Amino acid sequence: MAFEPYAARTHEKMQEVLMHPDIVGPGVHYYMIRGGSKKRNITVMETGVVGSEYIKTYGHYHVGDLDETYWFLSGEGIVLLQKMVEENGVPQHDKIEEFKAVRVKAGDSVYMPPGYGHLIVNTGETWLVMEDNSPVEGTQDSASMPGHADYEPVKIMHGFAYYVIQTGDGPALRPNALYKEVRKTDSGGVPISS
């Protein structure tokens, strides 16, 4: 079977990682066009919120030592990065060594180091469009759920250590109560709400 480069992330799939999975959201949260090793990948994100949580990507960790860079072409948002605590060489889904939030706008880029889970949040009023250099291609890969990405830890924890929510003062981080420990938090100037 040939590689199909297009995929859409539906609300049904996103319910696995939302702060309030029972709230109605858009039919599709974001669209992906995968370019493989010769072309970069493009992601286009919807605007808005599900309840009070901004539209986001599902989030994943890379398998192995793969790194990645995102280039932001349009819109504005927040990148979330987190690294799990390792105990006896085993990553602990519910314990985070380091969490970081980075505000982004068109023209910015963010490097995702190996070992760091990452997701993107659209906090703007227009499409958030980004390009990345993750190698997705071939019959062993799915444009929707590529083989080099591990989505399971994010699914188990129903999202990252913090959700990005809409408040009267703009975006804020709300802790995900399923996490037992977050050792270091760099909110990037985004307020933390209880």
Give an overview in words.
By secondary structure, this protein is mostly beta strands. The chain has one domain (6-186): Jelly Rolls (Sandwich), CATH 2.60.120. 5% of the residues lie in helices and 46% in strands. The protein has two helices and 17 strands. It has helices at 11-14, 152-156; strands at 6-10, 28-33, 41-45, 49-50, 53-54, 61-62, 68-74, 76-87, 90-105, 109-112, 117-122, 128-132, 149-150, 162-167, 170-175, 181-182, 185-186. The strands form five sheets. Strands 1-2-3-12-7-10 form a six-stranded antiparallel beta sheet. Strand 4 (49-50) and strand 5 form a beta hairpin. The radius of gyration is 16 Å and the shape is globular. The model has no long low-confidence stretch (mean pLDDT 91).
What is the structure about, briefly put?
The chain is mainly beta and 194 residues long.
Indicate the CATH class: Mainly Beta
* Overall morphology: globular
Order of helices and strands: EHEEEEEEEEEEEEHEEEE
Q: What class do helices, strands and sheet pairing give?
A: mainly beta
Radius of gyration (Å): 16 Å
Helix content: under 10%
CATH-defined fold name: Jelly Rolls
**Strand tally, please?**
17
CATH superfamily: Jelly Rolls
Strands side by side in the biggest sheet: 1-2-3-12-7-10
Q: Low-confidence parts lasting 5 or more residues at pLDDT below 50?
A: none
Report, as a whole number of angstroms, the end-to-end distance: 48 Å
CATH architecture descriptor text: Sandwich
Q: Averaged pLDDT, please?
A: 91
Helix segment count? Answer: 2
* Count of folded domains: 1
Percent in strands: over 45%
- Largest sheet, strands/sense/barrel: 6 strands, antiparallel
